[in-house]
Amino acid sequence: MKRKTLPLIAFLFLVLFLASCGFELVAQVSYNANTNVIPYTGGFRPGSNMGYTPGWTDENLADLACGNPETGVQGVGVKALRPALFGFFLETWGYNIRETTFQHYFDVDAKDNTCIIGFPHESERDPNFYCGQYQTELYANMYEPIWDGGLNGTPVNDNNYLALYLYRMINIYGDHIKFWEVWNEPGFDFTYAHGWLPPGAPGNWWENDPDPCHIKIRAPIQNYVRMLRICYDVIKTLSPDDYVVVAGVGYPSFLDAILRNTDNPNGGQVNGQYPYKGGAYFDVMGFHSYPHFDGAMRYWDNDIQGFVYNRHSDRGAWGITRKQNEYRDVLASYGYDGVTYPNKEWIITEINMPREPFNDYIGSLEAQINFIPKAVVTCIKNDIRQMHVWDISDREPETNVNDEFDAMGLYKDLEGLQPYNQEINEEGIAYKTSSDMLFSTTFDTYQTSLMNLPATLDGGAFRYPNGEYVYVLWAKTSVDQSEYAYETYSFPAGMNIQNVTMIEWDYARTASEPVVPAQNIELTGRPVFFKASSEQVVPPTAAFSVASQTGCAPYEVTFENTSSDNSFTFNWSFPGGNPSFSTEENPVVVYTAPGQYNVSLAVSNSVGNDATTETAFITVGEPLPIVSFNTNTVNGNAINFQNTTTGATSYTWDFGDGITSTQASPVHTFGGAGAYDISLTATNSCGSSTESVTLFVGSEVNPVSYTAQDYVEPFTGKFRPGCNSGYY
Predict the structure, then answer these.
(1) Rounded distance, CA 310 to CA 295, Å?
(2) CA-CA distance, 471 to 304, in Å (whole number)?
(3) CA–CA separation, 285 vs 445, rounded Å?
(4) N or C: at which end does the chain have fewer Cβ atoms within 10 angstroms?
(5) For residues 243 and 349, what is the distance between their CA atoms, to the nearest angstrom?
(6) Can you name the residues that pair with 646 across neighbouring β-strands?
(7) From the CB of residue 392, how many other CB atoms can be counted at a distance below 10 Å?
(8) Can you tell me the mean pLDDT for 627-647?
(9) Percent of the chain, pLDDT > 90?
(10) DSSP assignment string, 244-267
């Protein structure tokens, strides 16, 4: 076995010995989550859901998430994944089918992964119909004993299909999984009409167990608690350091139903056979955070008889804390408060907000970019151990988005692309930057208090294991459907920080790390990361260069900024160019007329500015000649070449028979009828242009005109006359 367990033979001897002594073999662990929850020490790990894209393997998708130097993929900063190992899949394809895939996750540094478990093969599915025509989704024989003393070759009872599935799976994949998520969305309310009801309302789940017809598992809540009990017993026996997770319950009322019931099929009552309620059988509370539709961004106002909206990224980050507190309050009401029973650990199994608006939801690129780092900061502050962004990629191209879940990818839609031809979305850049800056840090409340943040700012101080700090700051958004916010901030004198290295949201793309003074820092609604720097901020020095200063009109020039690295803004002036002004760092300019042109560049940063002007820096010559000519027959084989070229000062004719001429419009007599390759080279101060044609000379030649504007074959430059030019 790969896990930290008793060797199987020793385990079986122990079990048989206990059985021979009359012990009832019910559980292999002597504790539960009412007595023991091991604190997670792995820090915050940014994660992602996997999704599915035809043509891309899960190894490919893991490379996109985590990065893989062997494929040249930078990744988006993911440090944990949320795959699934469904029972029906493993039974169909074999339990080892995903072994190399999970090893690949480890190889690209996806550690302590969260894995969705459950969903049996039809041959192992409970045949009961607790809801009319709907068969339950759960495993059969869950009320069989979990352990059988190894009589069938495994320590678990092979007739308990869930226990056997867990035993076989953990021994193959356990080294790569830390959080075992028992079912996905077990409390999904098919009616959308009961889970949200308050106490006292008919059909609410606070005072009534959910109807099996209303929930995803299609079974009584006691059966779900039974599933938790089996999972807890087997997982903790085989891998005591791992965690059993309840997540995606949908509503606090469903969590309440878990916590007030045992696995007793007779109403969930406590007795000797069913001694503990559901909270004893899981360590981690997980939840989904989609603040655009989970109630975080609007509330009902009776005065206006309508909703009041707060659709902006800071409200979205607040929605994470709001959702966590809703579940925390339910847990505390049953004693999971760190006093009566241990506190639960926390993860978010799905999170995001869309780039496109639907219904009355928020939806914008700005909000999505801002939300991602704010969500990371919120999770670390609130001891949420992982957050798994939905999804690796968009589900549809941007022109075909049908709902908000289509526009939540860290990458653009991958379907139809070959690995690795992906295009990263802006939120993927923001996620990568946030991970690079905050991975392995812990939130430092004391250092944050020293920052003395006003109510209009958010962020905090985060400590690396080596004792250094990274600071995150942003101006809080507060207006519905707006990401605009602006404030200035100065690090207090008592922190003794004179200068800081500033790292903006797109650092993963730019790698820019300018040093700025620690005072009067301008902030917007987009989080910025800062590290204390010993470097002294000095005014910038302006400079620029080009690959070549001369060329023929129209002349396209790429200007390269070579100013000092501490330059923040760029103001270019290009008299006679198009454009004539630019604020880009490396602009492209086109000069269409001959002449000499000045170029100016002014740069600035937080402590000063500088400018430089280069006189007659760009020299543009006249355009290359445009070659054209006509022909007509003078007498017999004598041909008159009428030169209609523009922009030339000299000419060279080659008549294809060894004779040449430098006249502008020569008359040439060919030695006989036939085909001759004629070329005219026209030259001016900027260079030469040549056009060639095959001329047929015979007893009768119609007038022919040749011009560079007629058809020129690709790549060869061979001239082909137009349709009205006689014969070819």
Answers:
(1) 10
(2) 41
(3) 24
(4) C
(5) 14
(6) 626
(7) 28
(8) 90
(9) 85
(10) EEE----SHHHHHHHHH--S-TTT
